Every structure is written in structure tokens, then in C-alpha cells.
Amino acid sequence: MPNSIDAHIEFSFKGETHSLFARIDLDDFLGPGALPPSIHAVLAREHGIDTYSYLYEVMQEEDIRFDNAQGLASNYLKDGMFDMEGCFTGLQENMTLDLLQAISKRELGIADLEQHPALKKALLQAYSLGKNA
């Protein structure tokens, strides 16, 4: 299941009301060294708004409403508010665990790291050491 969320924003600029929507696939933003996306910037790109314009500056002043969270993202949506940082951290952790699970299966014949918490912890620590080196 994809990890996605719907984002909505409404604002007025020069007497015109803008109502923007985007379905955001959060998996598209994952990868080594990736940072959580700016939802305002994603909405602007989807609707052809220059991020160096006054229109974009006005847009940034408005709060974004979120709904229809799918996958892991649903754990971070509450009352229209979305914890992007927490979700992105969770997605990165899941991606790392998937990679470590594949290594443990291939190299050690261990099909489920959850059954070996000490090994899981050691692999995560080794990953963190390598990542921070």
C-alpha cells in the first residue's frame, strides 16, 4: 500500500480565491539523505505557482488541511493535522528495516528480524554508525 496523503489549501490573492489540492505519494520523497518535502512547495509545483512569487508567499501564510492518509501516513494524521516529520522518520525507518531484513535473510537465513530483537538492534546500530561515518 502506498504511503500517501491528500493536501488542501485555500487562500486569496489580488481578489482571487485559490483552492489547491494534491495527492502526495510520500514514498516518492524517500531515499538516502532525503528530507521531508515542503508541502507548500509541492502544492505550488502541482499548480504551476512559482516559488519565488508573491502568490507563493501569500500561500505559505495559510495552513494546509490534510485527509485521506494511506499506509503508514495514517498513523500521523489527526484532526486534519499531519505530523510530516514523524511520518517521514517512520517511513525512513521502515525502509531501513526492509533493507536490513533482506540482508539478514540472504546472509543469515533469518526470515523475520522481529524474532531476533538483539540482532535487529545490532544491525540498526551498525547501519547508524555507517550512515554517520
Please count the beta strands (DSSP E, at least 2 residues each): 5
Which geometry do the CA atoms define?
A: elongated
Spatial order of strands in the largest sheet:
2-1-3
Secondary structure tally, helices: 4
Low-confidence stretches: none
State mean pLDDT (0 to 100 scale): 91
Beta-strand share of residues: 15-25%
Q: Largest sheet, described in full?
A: 3 strands, antiparallel
Q: How far is the first residue's CA from the last residue's CA?
A: 33 Å
Order of helices and strands: EEHHEEEHH
Radius of gyration over all CA atoms, rounded: 19 Å
Helix content: 40-55%
Structural class designation: alpha+beta
What does this structure look like?
With 133 residues, this protein is an alpha+beta fold. It has helices at residues 39-46, 54-60, 84-108, 117-132, and strands spanning 4-13, 16-25, 65-70, 77-78, 81-82. The strands form two sheets. Strands 2-1-3 form a three-stranded antiparallel sheet. A two-stranded antiparallel ribbon has the order 4-5. A hairpin with a 2-residue loop joins strand 1 and strand 2. It is elongated, with a radius of gyration of 19 Å. The mean pLDDT is 91.
